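Listing S7. Sequence submitted for prediction.
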Amino acid sequence: MFPIGNIRGCDPGAGTVAIDSSERVGRLRQGQFAHESERVLDVVLMGHAEMWVAMRERDAIYALGRSALFGRNALTSASSVSM
């Protein structure tokens, strides 16, 4: 078990960090209850702005329903097809 503070004499403000330009870096905010009412997947995707926008757009399209997208007869015509 390590003592709180400097671990074996390491200075937390010293040193360097190298990040490749092709890598993403995230940060974790410590608001434990900030997103308590959100799904875990949604909170994770909020950290990737482009993906979050795409998922929200997808959810909005799904919320419209099939009949709103393809017309009122979309559900009945699909079910009347015989095999």
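Caption to Listing S7: primary sequence and predicted structure tokens for the chain studied. Helices lie at 40-46, 49-64, 66-70, 74-79. The CA atoms of residues 68 and 74 lie 9 Å apart.
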